[in-house]
Amino acid sequence: MLDVAVIEDAAAAEATLDPLRAQLLAELAEPGSASSLAARIGLPRQKVNYHLRELERHGLVELVEERRRGNMTERVLRATASSYVISPAALAAVAPDPQRSPDRLSARWLLAVAARLVSDVGALITGATRAGKRVSTFALDGEVRFASAADRAAFAGELTNAVIGLVGKYHDDAAQGGRKFRVVVAVHPALDSRVADGTEDEES
């Protein structure tokens, strides 16, 4: 079982968006059959089996073993991953494009960059998994509380200069055997309950 699987196929993404199928995927973190799942979630076995077949058809669950139960065979399945991420590649025709109106101060542009990040890293994970290799990545995640908008702007300026300096120091177009890496640095308001429920302006 994979730790994270990236869904790039639109039909597979649609399958996971069904609440019942999402529940079945969560239940199948441990192997189970249609009968055991039906008893656990309180639905007819035939209905559960139908949805399991759809999940299996899209590669979201896999057969672990088959057991003989009298005159029938019980199929034991397991989710192919502990968790799933739907890549923007699943909606390629309408996926946000960061090359369209790039604006470092635009939340929509940040979202487009994040979508490209998910799509690119998803493709890398898929390829690396098939090749039995790991993907070389690095990420930082943290929070900073600014006293004022002026401090926030000053931080953004210093961060920009620091990143530009590091890129200039280590970037080497002539390096034989070198490999390009994409650098993404983002700053956005931390989401809390007041923003989530609309009681506080996210730009405050």
Largest beta-sheet details:
3 strands, antiparallel
Q: Which ranges are low-confidence, i.e. pLDDT below 50, for 5 or more consecutive residues? A: none
Rg? 23 Å
N-C termini distance: 43 Å
How many DSSP helices? 7
Strand line-up across the major sheet: 2-4-3
Instruction: Report the order of strands and helices.
Output: EHHEHHEEEHHH
Q: How much strand content do the residues show?
A: 15-25%
Morphology: elongated
Kindly state the number of beta strands.
5
Class inferred from helices and paired strands: alpha+beta
Number of domains: 2
* Mean pLDDT across residues: 89
Percent helix range: 40-55%
Describe the protein.
With 204 residues, this protein is of the alpha+beta class. 44% of the residues lie in helices and 15% in strands. It is built from 7 helices and 5 strands. The strands form 2 sheets. A 3-stranded antiparallel β-sheet has the order 2-4-3. Strands 1-5 form a two-stranded parallel ribbon. The model has no long low-confidence stretch (mean pLDDT 89).
Characteristic key phrases:
three-stranded antiparallel sheet; 7 helices; alpha+beta; two-stranded parallel sheet
Question: Helices, strands, pairings?
Answer:
Layout: E1 2-7, H1 10-17, H2 19-27, E2 32-33, H3 34-41, H4 45-57, E3 61-69, E4 72-79, E5 81-86, H5 107-131, H6 149-170, H7 193-196
How would you concisely characterize the structure shown here?
With 204 residues, this protein is of the alpha+beta class.
